[in-house]
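dumping this here before i forget
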Amino acid sequence: MKRRVCAFLCVICLLCTLIPSSLMASDINGHWAQADIQRLADLGVMKGYTDGSFKPGNQITKAEYITLLNRVFGLTASENVSASDLSSSKWYYQEILKAEAADYLFVFNGKVSPDKSLTREEAAAMFGRLLGLPTSTSATSFTDDRSISSWAKPYIPAVAAARIINGYPDGSFHPTETITRAEVARVLNNVCGTFFGAAGTYSFMDSAKENVIVMVPGVTLSGLNIPGNVYISGSVGSGTVTLHNCTVGGEIIAFGNPGATVRFTGTTAKAAVDADGLSILADGVVNELTVTSDTSRAYVIAGSSGSIEKLNMKTVGAITGTVKHLDVSVSGVTAAQLPEKWTLASGVSVTLAGKVYTTSGTKGPGFASGYPKAEIRQTAGGLSQEIVVTVKLEEPGQIYTIAVPRGSAVPSDEQVKAMANYGMVSISGRNFAAVTTTGVELNLTMGSLPLGTLYDVYVVVESMETQPRLGSAVKLMPSEQLMASGYPKVSALGDNSATVLVKTVAQAQIYMLALPTGSAAPTAQQMSASAAITGAVRVQGAVAGGNEEYLTISGLTKGPAAYDLYVAAAPIGGSVTTEISKFALASTGNSVTVQYSAAAVNGSYPGHTSLTLQFHDKMYKAGTNIEMGTSGAALADLITITGTNLHTGAVSLVTGFTVTNAGSGIVILTPPSGGWSGGMKYTVSLKNITDASGRNPAPSEITFTVGSGAVVAAPAFSLATGSTVTPGTAITATSATPNAVIQYTTDGSDPITGNYQLSYGTTLTLKIPENAINGARYQFRAVARLDTAYSDVVDVWYTVGQNVLEPVVTRADTGALLKASGETLISGTAINVASLDPAAVIYYTHDGSTPFATGIGQKNVQLVVSGQLGQAIVLKFLVVSGSSQSQVFTYTFTIGSANTASTLQAPVVLVGLATSPAVSNASYTVTGTDTLKVYSFNNRSATKLYYTLDGSDPRISGSARQSLTMAAAGAPVELPLSALTIGQQYTLRFVAADETASSFTGLPNYSEVVTVSLTRVS
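structure:
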């Protein structure tokens, strides 16, 4: 939580200047804190004793003080506390756990000391931790500074440095002096200021107070000038607090992470919101809004009728709606729309309208989606290269583009427009065009660029208005001609494979795609995409550049001659932009074919398999004219076999196999005694053999894998390939084969032979990094292995779409954002579902099943949540935009009770021998001989009375709810109290119910709940 210095200073001042005076012990009438006590009592925050007195002069215990803070700030979350003096049977047990969860509890030597009288330094320190006061080790100016405990002292110097602490007249602080109940009442009133404890519209506040606190949802503050902070109590929950034409001098802060929505209407000059536990909705004009957060992602929405003139984002978050000037201090901010101006701190990147920006800028004429883009090509003759920039505009404009060597200093927008050398940078190319026709592609070419150089391209567009708007420069990074001259080329053919020799001038990703002969040539996008093409076989791999490297494409089940092979290169992480090379494998000339004596299972052959090689030309010992298999050219000398261990990567020379010359160019390879070893990849080298012209046979190497022969199920991924995911998304891959392990790679290499990683067990969980950049692409290749048998290789890839394809779920009546779980809604509540991507459509289910992108999706969905009281409603959403789709988002709501428009009269409760009805939320003492009398005056035969002893809601059916049977309307029902434990406090809650009513969508019609606290004393 952020540092709430201003509020805490008020607390310390009060603790230092309140001097105990002569107090009345039995009543508050005429007491100096009467108004403070009465205000807190009316809100149910402070309560009196069971004898009807308040005892304002009594010392307050640590447990009582903690309970007050929890009530005021609506803290409900709890966390276990390890303390020897804390018992779960004590009335304050849960309150101590809430203080621990809010991180303001002090535990010393394993003890909480809940029953100990509270001292001034304890009160100051606990309030300081709750409000997030910055700590300091500096000494204070108090004369008794050494008496202040070391654990409390860090919270006091900041106040002293602000010259607000006056202490006692003698300059002391009196840290160990206890404080009274009345003093605490005054402190809470002055810190929180004006309390708003009921729904409604308020146009007034206590002019003597700095701050306000909102304790319930549905509060509208109208036209208020609030000098200090607006505190939103955790009891607001997921409701809405509206500020209409208000001015807030401090911050808007939530406690207890309620998930509430702050809604601005009218005109707001300036506001600051701590987004921890809050969402922000601007349905009016906000001139300047500052958003901070310590622990959560901020969500800022400018509604259709609202706008934010300037938004200062000092935290990660998602923005939708109209923002004119966006000032960003940290990376991780996304905006669905492009602001007119954005300012970025040094080193910060931001995603605006789906594009990443790393420098400040302004909105000029807009580029159409997918533009601009750049491609680099070799010119005719291959002596130079040219860059072609393709643009398409949404409105008329003048386009300026320059090319500079990769890594040069980034130019300003004006420097791009000048199209001239800037600083120490000499531009390599330039072009200009005036575009008067929108929606049409235009190419701007920069030619005569030297080969072997990478370039950065900058494009800026300026409007054609009287006062033209200059947009921000867009940076493009086209790849150069990566493939070295004379490459790629086919070096070898197998019975179902082809090996290609490549050489690139820089690190690159190589894509190979085999299509049945006569198929249409693939596009550059199809080369690198993993989308299926009928009859296609594909493989890809990374190469370091500068050296020759071999890449093999397998799975050519119809034989290489039945395929055309296409090869292309791309920068690592980039797209294919270079020429695509085509090879007709049927016309590669000199060849040898292979037949195996046994069939392969999942790509692996049994250990007893023999190989028959058919040479289609007369072959010779390399470098001689001695025919293969004759004297001086023995087959055993010309053919060598090596084996690679698939688990360790170790390579060894194979011996013991038999080579037989069967004549007519046929050679038979028989395995060694005992067969080929399992879990090995074997390579048969024919590089010592050539034809009459000196060429090696194609292929010059034959590879085959030997396994156990078991059938292994390939891994199945939980998300379809091509899906759009968010940072942190978990993806699972599962093999249906028991005891199989999954091998996978993330660099595009073969998961059998590449740099793979292991997942021990049939399920693998992969996670998209939390810091993944929007638009980044992640590829996984996986295979399942059992012993030495492998499944088919599975290729999947995912694109990060940070929140763009995340559904935005809000209440239709208030516009409040709804959390994915923990929300309670009244049956009949309407919710809206939309996406930050304006082109996206939404698919959904309400029966717990998984939605699929079938049929017609909806851009905006409105659903009505209905069901029985306590029922869990499960909604699942899938957001789809074009070919991209999100993960499945699950929202779970609980149906709660409708507490409005009840026509039933609440029960009347008499305690003991009393003749007056019990006051709801009051506390009473009883004896074991006393009896509670409960009346219901509802003249309905269907009316029932329900009650609970543990403080739980009697409207919700469960083991804690009990019923009372009335003889007739108005007749009392007696409830003996002899079963209550002496000394224990009980919270009884009563309600009347008409179970035939249908005004709440089939739910019972309940009266108001009556709450009475009882303690048995004898």
